[in-house]
Amino acid sequence: MREIAARLGVSSMTVSRAIRGDSGISAATRERVLEAVAAVGYRPNDLARRLRTGEAHELVGLIVTNLANPFYAQLAVGVEAVATVHGAGLVVASTNGDLERERQLVRDMAARRLAGLVVVPVGNDHRHLSPRRLADLPVVLAAVPPRGIDVDCVLVDDFGGTYEACRALIARGHRRIGFLGLPASLWTGSERYRGYAAGLEDAGLVLDPRYVSQHRGDVQLAAAATRKLLALSDPPTALITANNRNTIGALRAVRHHPTPVALAGFDDIELADLLQLPLSVVSYDAAEVGREAARLLFGRIEETGPRPTDERRTGTQRVVIATHVVDHQQDEDPPPQ
Amino acid sequence: MREIAARLGVSSMTVSRAIRGDSGISAATRERVLEAVAAVGYRPNDLARRLRTGEAHELVGLIVTNLANPFYAQLAVGVEAVATVHGAGLVVASTNGDLERERQLVRDMAARRLAGLVVVPVGNDHRHLSPRRLADLPVVLAAVPPRGIDVDCVLVDDFGGTYEACRALIARGHRRIGFLGLPASLWTGSERYRGYAAGLEDAGLVLDPRYVSQHRGDVQLAAAATRKLLALSDPPTALITANNRNTIGALRAVRHHPTPVALAGFDDIELADLLQLPLSVVSYDAAEVGREAARLLFGRIEETGPRPTDERRTGTQRVVIATHVVDHQQDEDPPPQ
DNA sequence: CTGTTAGCGCCTTCAC
DNA sequence: GTGAAGGCGCTAACAG
Questions:
Q1: C-alpha distances in Å from residue A283, one per residue of A193, A213, A286, A326
Q2: A279 and A175 in one domain?
Q3: Which of A90, A333, A337, B239 has the most CB atoms at less than 10 Å from its CB?
Q4: Is pTM beyond 0.85 here?
């Protein structure tokens, strides 16, 4: 900047004004400066500008378990879309389910002065995500409600989706319905299990614990658990799977079973309609989860603007994204038993 | 920082040293400082630190068409993994195939002083990605070789993969093999088409242009194109599809065809083994593409370190990721014709 | 081991 | 319309 100023015989202030399109500079001078800028290939240093103006980075962070999971990839796309509208970029990071890594990532992002954070947290205690501990960094949770902190969140209707799926199987004549779930300690895991249990109960069916398997969502484990359920003397005629990993594991196991087993899985699966199997899915717009989270986040970021008005609490918001059951049963599905 | 220094009656230098874990400070003083830091909830300002030290941001950028495409999501995971090892974060952005947006993203990222950029470029002219025009920002291309600029790149063996897939179909007895390809103007499109053509030629078969359809990879278009090919009086008995979108479109169309049609598609597909269809895929490690790209990028970032030694050109590097054909044909595949 | 001085590149403020 | 001071928060480079 100095260089350009010297070269043109003006002060660096003039260059600064020209670059920012500030008013209070003659058109002629501005022209000259911008020409020189282009010629030298000079780019203003964002760091210095922000240091001076105290602005945060126009970057928001997204912390998820694993970006390769289609759900999180879609979530990222949603967050990115809204961030772009606000002129912001998106920093992504995967925790691989490691709480310590989550802690570290959050600290890093706060230190880097990102403008805000969307987090799909690993554990149940979210106190390390408190904005107050993070230099007032706004935080929004996705997929999980906050616990121990007071921030906005976007949830999926885990309970309702599983409930509907369960009722649909029952309506189709199933009475022995198994459940392939996530660990009971996870919020999504327990909500989806609750939907299953309520679906049974409201239909006057008794939940048989032998039909329930809860474990971290992993294709191998799900396949093994499915085989175990199907090996019972009175095996389930239908299974509810609590996420896409479980669904895929179950699909593989079910293929080798003599009698047909109906499946209803949380999360949609591409190509589900091409499988020659009776499969329903609980579908929802994962990108919309991201978009809503980003909207909430930018709402907080912008309200922080004026001055940390400590009494700006409008109360925290909680948005729930709807689910709906999609049947991929290509033919009629012979009601078993 | 000043506040902490004042509160403890030391200089800000002492605080700085304690925070950075610099040597040359007594353990006792360090303790006291760190305690105060924790008490006040102070976080060092990364911006100021970098401004002072002249370090680039520990952030690298990744620009792709669409993060929701599994290939790009995997790529991102690979880049992120290597970036993490280098203590860097990852900024992602999707162009949605829009060249103007790509231009703008690149400019933004350069202005934000990211440390480097991995780009899967939209078009064929890459001059706007020249590091020289981007404040010496190191750039690595993925999936496409550079044109008009001189940078490192990571490629997939598009030609070889398609060639092998074609030969495999021929070995299985197919003679009328169709091709569902990407636009000929795309590098990957033309390489994969070349692999198909060479596969036929080396087997002494003649390429029948009626069997070739080239369009942007879109499930709907691919399905329509497939139906058209299969409506010919002497339809192909096998199809090669140039990417996962084409493969899925073809799968949908083939389902409703009376006689079996073998498919061989570029890009692996989850659940491919569960489809009751004769499908082979050209598989490769998409995350490895990202890891290699990141390795090359950090190589450049680190060599820039000392001083822009203008004669550091070791020549640009080009890494090719291998492909291999995976058969998902569950049973034997009745050689047609 | 600790403090002082100076300045990273830019922008706010106030003169002119 | 333009320029001169001064400082954002931090840390090299030297002193003590």
A1: 17, 22, 9, 7
A2: yes
A3: B239
A4: yes
User: Is A167 in the same domain as A275?
Assistant: yes
- CA nearest neighbour of A242 among A273, A221, A271, A266: A266
> CA dist A330 to A50, A250, A276, A278, B204, Å?
58, 19, 8, 7, 42
- CB distance A46–B73 less than 8 Å? no
- Domain shared by A146 and A113, yes or no: yes
Chain B interface disruption, residue of A20, A37, A47, A95, most B CBs within 10 A: A47
> Could you give the count of Cα atoms lying within 13 Å of A275 in the half-sphere of its Cβ?
26
Nucleotides of D under 7 A from a protein CB: 1-5, 7-13
Q: Which domain holds residue A8?
A: 2-40
Per-residue pLDDT of chain A (337 residues; tens, 9 = 90+): 888 888 888 888 898 988 888 888 888 888 888 888 888 878 788 788 888 888 877 899 999 999 999 999 999 999 999 999 998 999 999 999 999 999 999 988 888 889 999 999 998 999 999 988 887 889 999 999 999 999 999 999 999 999 999 999 999 999 999 999 999 999 999 999 999 999 999 999 999 999 999 998 789 999 999 999 999 999 999 999 999 899 999 999 998 888 999 999 999 988 888 887 889 999 999 999 999 999 999 999 887 644 444 445 568 999 999 999 999 865 444 434 4
With CB atoms and an 8 Å threshold, state whether A133 touches B41. Answer: yes
Q: Are B131 and B219 in the same domain?
A: no
What's the half-sphere exposure (Cβ side, CA atoms, 13 Å) at A194?
12
The conformation of residue B22, written as its DSSP 8-state character, comes to -
Near-strand D residues (CB closer than 7 A): A 9-11, 13-14, 17, 23-26, 28-29, 48, 51-52, 54; B 1-2, 12-13, 16, 19-20, 44-45, 48-49, 51-53
- Tell me which H or E stretch contains B263: strand B262-266
Residue B323 in domain: no
**Distance in angstroms: CA B2, C1' C4:** 15
In CATH, what number is assigned to the domain containing residue B276?
A: 3.40.50.2300
Task: Please tell me the total count of domains within chain B.
Answer: 3
Instruction: Round to a whole number and report the distance in Å from the CA of A296 to the C1' of D5.
Output: 42
For residue A143, tell me if it sits in a domain.
yes
B236 domain-assigned: yes
Q: Do B148 and B166 belong to one domain? A: no
**Residue A133 shares a structural domain with residue A192:** no
**Which residues are CB-neighbours of A171 under 8 A, at least 6 positions away?**
none
Asked if A130 and A167 sit in the same domain, the reply is no
Residues B164 and B202 grouped into a single domain:
yes
Domain assignment of residue A316, yes or no: no
